[in-house]
Automatic annotation (TrEMBL):
Main localisation: mitochondrion
Lineage: Eukaryota, Metazoa, Chordata, Craniata, Vertebrata
Keywords carried by this UniProt record: Chaperone, Disulfide bond, Membrane, Mitochondrion, Mitochondrion inner membrane, Protein transport, Translocation, Transport
Tim10-like domain segment(s): 22-83
Matches recorded under Pfam families: zf-Tim10_DDP (PF02953)
Name of the featured protein: Mitochondrial import inner membrane translocase subunit
Subunit structure: Heterohexamer.
Similarity comment: family membership: Belongs to the small Tim family.
Cell compartments where the protein resides: Mitochondrion inner membrane
One annotated Gene Ontology cellular component of this protein: mitochondrial inner membrane
Source organism of this protein record: Poecilia reticulata (Guppy)
Function comment: Mitochondrial intermembrane chaperone that participates in the import and insertion of some multi-pass transmembrane proteins into the mitochondrial inner membrane. Also required for the transfer of beta-barrel precursors from the TOM complex to the sorting and assembly machinery (SAM complex) of the outer membrane. Acts as a chaperone-like protein that protects the hydrophobic precursors from aggregation and guide them through the mitochondrial intermembrane space.
GO biological process, one term: protein transport
Membrane topology: Peripheral membrane protein
Comment block on domains: The twin CX3C motif contains 4 conserved Cys residues that form 2 disulfide bonds in the mitochondrial intermembrane space.
Amino acid sequence: MVKLTYYMDGQGASADPQLQHFIEIESQKQRFQQLVHQMTEVCWEKCMDKPGPKLDSRTEICFVNCVERFIDTSQFILNRLEQTQKSKGGFSETMLD
């Protein structure tokens, strides 16, 4: 069980660092589950013609390729967003000097 503890500082109450860490981990788990759900939905629609007791080799290869492309694309987008944030942050810091 998570203990809720608040500390008063000069700027108001702040959450316990353990609670903040717990919330961040749970948020990451939720984002991961959403990503898996989205990937499953996309790849299922793309690769599954008619469900059966076993996957044929063509369907299996399609799923593998779909998942790999989905992961590659997600990683590319995350890297691009990170670069964009860094470049905007660097620009803002330069303007403040």
